[in-house]
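Protocol step 4 of 6: structure prediction from sequence.
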Amino acid sequence: MHRFIQFNDERIDSFLFMEMADLAKTLSKNGEMSLKYGPFSYLDPKNEVVYVSHFWDHRDKRDETYGLKSDVYLRTIGNLGHTEMKTVERYLRAIDRSPVKRFAKQLFVIGEEVRLEEICKSERPGTKASFSVRRRIYRQFFDAQLKVNLTKSVFTDALFNQLFLLLHAQSPLEEATAISDEIDLMMPFLQRQLSLLYETKSTSDVVKVCMEMVEVCEDVLKKDMLNEYFHLPEDVYADEADQTFDDLKRRDPLVNEDVLEEESTGEEEIMDEEFRTWHRESEEKGESFLQFDLDQGSSSDLMGEGVREGEDGDQAMAMVQGTSKQTDREIYETPKAVDQEHEERGMGDHPYGKENRYAEAVFLAPDVPSSEDKAAYGVNKAAVFTYKKKLQKMIEKTLEHKRIQPRTDLHFGRLNKKLLRLLTDDVPRLFYKKHDPSTELDAVFSLLVDCSGSMFDKMEETKLGITLFHESLKGVRVPHEVVGFWEDTNAATSHSQPNYLKPVLEFQSSLKPSSGPEIMQLQPEEDNRDGFAIRLMTDRILQRGEKQKFLLVFSDGEPAAMDYEQNGIVDTHEAVLDARKKGIEVINVFLASGEIDEGQRKTIQNIYGNYSILVSDVSELPDVLFPLLRKLLISSI
């Protein structure tokens, strides 16, 4: 059983999600390509997102995996490499006013996917198994939908279901189900058109076939489709650079298209009547000034050519000229401006990961320990006393000691290999002496503590474990730091996510005899953005000169923050891999307050691999940590 992410009332297998995310990046050859779950599967090339569908949820594990893979194949190998975006845009414009627009959009999707499926299987024969499962499940689904829609007399949906079944027929002799007299009459034509989809070589060919089918269906179908089985996002294919000024203007059709007659040259009767713009419906202020929604009236060519000279009264309608300057009010700051600000700060390449591009690190100074903190720490210190020496001995046995340079240029000792000084020096110093290894260990530890709300029932046990590590490391004179982290939920917005890091113990103060009570300041707070915190700590620990560097992450392995739900586990896993590539040994420590849930165990293993310590009691820490450190030491030799 894997740990599941809760998203829009759907439970997502975290390990499977990471697998699909890696597959999307690999096939797209783009490390920035991200994966998201949604109601429908499609590609968003502008934002570099591959959407996979919830359609595959709640199925057999093998079918779910193959179904999700087929989504990824179609979006990365297919849409990204072989779909002509401009052609799709033109098709969307052509069907914009069609009475069966929803039908036309979904017809194109299944037609294009037939072409892309063959390309995927040709370029990567290993995808055949996934597409075989995809066809089988979709056929079962649309067969059931056809019966439902026929029973409900939803004929357009039934027609689409029938077309899908015929397009993916297992036999050329498969016959169409009767729907209605009008639809049945045009079915032979539609079937011939469907067969042409297997001969298409480009997106343009698919569009041509679909347009011919849509034109015929417009004359027969009385209503558009009720359901949406496949999604063709219009905003993804719209090219803003190609839009003219007329495209940007509002052009909603009027109820009637009659045109006013030309203005009379005679005298007009003038009605002096007051027009009030305030009424009960508009008592509350809106964001617009004298804005009207007009869908009735007559088209007019008044003011179509000439330009009226400005008057003094025009200022009330904001028709003025002058210089502009930046406002000092934050309310006018747009997301685009925020993006530009981040670019200017050097964050354009997302140094802390794409999922953390709007995360902001805020380091807090530790508080002076109170008398209650000192008393509580004394209790914890006494509780771990029996395990402290055991952990100290284990650390001394596994970690390397610092090396001291030998003393050279002596008159006696071991003979140096450099004997040239016999000829060049009057009193040559040709000997050296080795020094015993230093008693100090050549290592540094950083203890990163998850202070999110999900740790509220584990925080006391976690602080007990941190106390054990602190006292043991202090006893063997290994510098270390203890840093708590959390994200401010209330202050987080889509373009600003403050993340607080509180170093309650710093490297320079960790070895002081009185240090320790500061640990008791750690408390469960709000959200946790683990990947961002791990990357920040990686930068801090890399500044240290010790040979062996360790990052211990005390966390329950469940990242949760704004816009971080789906990709949090993947981002944290990537942060861990990045730290390990830079020579930092990353270990997760999960101190549960009771029996460890199997789902949590799997989630942690998905992120940290085999380098994780999961214990339900602090007394188990030394025995579990000893073989893990030995394994790390052997692997680094």
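Step 5 (inspection) to follow. The first strand starts at residue 4 and ends at 7.
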